[in-house]
Amino acid sequence: MAQMGRPRQFDRATAVTKAMHLFWQNGYEGTSLSQLKAELGISAPSFYAAFGSKEALFHETVARYLDSHGSVMDCLWDPALQPRAAIELALRGSARMQVEASHPSGCMVALGVTSAGAPDNAAVTAGLTAARARNRAGILACVQRGIAQRQLDPATDAAALAGAFESFLLGLSTLARDGATRETLDSAVTQVLQLWPGPVDGKAER
Length: 206
Description:
The protein is built from 9 helices and no strands. With 206 residues, the protein is an all-alpha fold. Residues 32-51 bind DNA. InterPro entries: DNA-bd_HTH_TetR-type_CS, Homeodomain-like_sf, HTH_TetR, Tet_transcr_reg_TetR-rel_C_sf.
C-alpha cells in the first residue's frame, strides 16, 4: 500500500500562515483539527508528519505572528526613539495592523487571553502570555524613561500610567473585532495619549 504523504505542492510557510489565521480568528480551543486539515488541504497523517501536533503548530504560528504582525510593538525597545514617541508609534501601529483586511481583526497576542482559557492549557499559550508581559514591560520602561528625562512629572505613578496605556492596547482588539475603523482607532489613540502631555500629531506613525 502506498504511503500517504504530504501533497506534492505542500508549502510549509503558506500552511503555517493559513493555520495562524485560523488560530488568530478562532483561538486555540476554538480551532479544531478538522478545520486545520481542511484549510491546509492535508490528511491527518500528513498533518502529524508535518507539524507533530496541534499544539506544536500553534506554537509555530505564534512565533510567526510575533515575527511579523506582532513586531509593531518592537519600537517600545528602540533607544533611538523618545519614550513618548515609542508608545505612540506602538499604539498607532497596532491599531492600524488590527484592522487590516488581509488577516483576522484584532491582535493575536491580546486575544490569546481567551484563546485557551482552561488552566490545563497554560503551557499552550505561554508564548502569548510572554509577549503580553514583554509589551507591558516595554510600555513601563518608556514611562520610566520619560520620568527620568523630566518629560513627565517626577511624581507620576509609572505603573499606573503604563497600566492605562496597556489596558487601552488590549482593548483595541475588542473594538477591531466589533468593526471599528482605522480612523476611529487612530482618534482614540490621540485621546489616550493626552495622558502624557505633549504634541499629538501622528508624526510618530511616519
